[in-house]
Design a protein that fits this description.
Layout lengths: L4 E6 L2 E6 L6 H4 L3 H12 L1 H8 L3 H7 L10 H11 L3 H11 L8 H21 L3
Antiparallel strand pairs: 1-2
Helix pairs in contact: 2-6
Length: 129
């Protein structure tokens, strides 16, 4: 993960440009269920199941694509409260409240990322990093 910070001084005021190379939540997860599932498995299925007062097997089925058992809104609220994982909230914000924050020219942004990564590699080989 590369997060360079470029600072410039212009007319006595500093401007900072931060480049974040971590993909957005909408690129990492196809659905809210997948986002929650990643958080559950990252924290440990058994531990989260205890927090939610659910059997690990049932929790596993709830966060899978099985149509017979669903992960309820109440369970989601309890999950966020018990684990402190606000990633599902951020996923929903990014998807529904901040569509204008997503780059409209994603291809150009990716090209710039690739150029910057290439430049960083060249700097490292020259001993500049």
């Amino acid at each position: 993960m590369v997060s360079p910070v470029i600072t410039s001084s212009q007319n006595g005021t500093k401007e900072q440009l931060t480049l974040d190379f971590v993909p957005g939540l909408l690129e990492r997860f196809r659905s809210l269920r997948e986002c929650v599932g990643a958080g559950v498995y990252q924290r440990g299925l058994g531990r989260v199941a205890i927090d939610l007062d659910v059997a690990p097997g049932n929790l596993s089925v709830q966060i899978s694509d099985d149509p017979s058992r669903k992960f309820s809104v109440d369970s989601l609220e309890r999950y966020i409260e018990k684990t402190g994982d606000n990633t599902p909230i951020m996923y929903l914000v990014e998807k529904f409240l901040a569509p204008d924050a997503r780059p409209k020219n994603a291809h150009e942004v990716q090209e710039i990322r690739n150029q910057l990564a290439s430049a960083m590699r060249r700097l490292e080989t020259l001993g500049g990093a």
